[in-house]
Amino acid sequence: MIVPPETLLLFLPVAAALALTPGADMLFSLGQGLRSGPAAGLAAAAGASSGVLVHATAAGLGLALLVAQAPMAFEVIRWAGVAYLVWLAVQTLRADGPLRPDTASVASGPAAAFWRAMLVNLLNPKVSIFILALLPQFVVRDAGSQLAQFLVLGGLLAVVGFAVNATVGLSAGRIGQALMTRRRLAAGIRLVTGSLLFGLAARLAFEKR
User: Phi, psi at residue 21, to the nearest 5°?
Assistant: First the structure.
């Protein structure tokens, strides 16, 4: 086995605790569910977990270390993430009228939610550095390929995170789906979703490295 069972038993509670802590991925899945329905909330959770897998692979290959040691690269990625979140917030607030799942545009559907969530995750260098700091603590030097261990641990982190974020996104989606057919309620939900996105942008912009 690539990762010893005793290491997995230690890692899983850590992964669960991290997944249950409200963060950018959870809030983004919540916002996408509210805005575009359960399928979009589920897709956003999948996109965020895919981003975690990319970060874990980068950490295993040593690429994340380059970002951690290069202040300019860190800042470029961070501000690209801020700009993208602000753009999403503005697009959300500019939308008008009721939204029904059967008439939702491709731009607000599950596929768009998946790629947006993945990009938001990838443009957060904090996630990369966090994974770089966390996973090596559970890598066993004599257990085989370190890259394979990074992928297994990152995969577990992604699966546990997906389970939690998907639950949040689906629940928010059902609530949003029931309310979005009314113009005023739809406007309120869009305001909440846009505010969440602006909040995530501000958090990424002002959070210390």
Answer: -80, 120
DSSP 169: H
Q: What is the CA radius of gyration of the chain?
A: 18
* pLDDT, tens digit (0-9, with 9 covering 90-100), for 31-44: 899 888 899 999 99
For residue 77, give the DSSP letter: H
184 exposure class (CB count in 10 Å sphere: 0-12, 13-18, 19+): exposed
Asked if residue 168 lies in contact with residue 63, where contact means CB atoms within 8 angstroms, the answer is no
Between CA 190 and CA 209 the distance in angstroms is 30
40 vs 109: CA distance, rounded Å: 6
0.90 surpassed by pTM: no
Under DSSP, is residue 7 helix (H, G, I), strand (E, B) or coil? helix
**Measured distance CA(48)–CA(72) in Å, rounded:** 24
